[in-house]
Amino acid sequence: LGLGVVCAGSLNAAETAVDAIYVDCTAAAGGDGSADGPFQTIVEGIAAAGTDDNPTLVLVAEGTYTLSAMLTVNKAITVRGAGMDKTFVDGGKKVRGISISGNAVVENLTVQNCATTSKASGIGVAISSGILRNCRVTNCSNGAHDSTGIGVYLSGTALVTGCIIENCTSSKRATGYGAYLAEKGAAIERTLVTGC
Question: Is 12 exposed, middle or buried (0-12, 13-18, 19+ CB in 10 A)?
């Protein structure tokens, strides 16, 4: 499913009162995405959201969700964490973080420790059409290669708003970028970029 699970957290009562798909990494495997039987991985929540009259909101409980492959959000849904200091998507210094397209929204979480073991650029979040809102992107790099470390890569109609991008670096001779705007239609607003 693209995710390992290392977690301590759960959904609170306010979060379970919303019409949504629920994800909680402390839940037992085999859940149905309901408040009483949440999915264990974000991948399962994304797959179910917006299909067969399912809600388009995926609520991700607090905890750390460790990636084994880049997480893809490629349809018009919202993936919402419990807060940037509570919900963590972790690349384990081995994989890129999140790919956002299809007018998706990702909000209220931290993307951290994203890198690549190949010579490609290490990217925390890549957005081509969609929004990254109220998130932290931190400690993303290119690993030990001569390629670029990028916190957030924006193209198309991507928007980053109300975020913190920090400590995204490169090793050896290549450059590290907090954010890289590849096209004129992409935008960043109300975002702090530091230590990159």
Answer: exposed
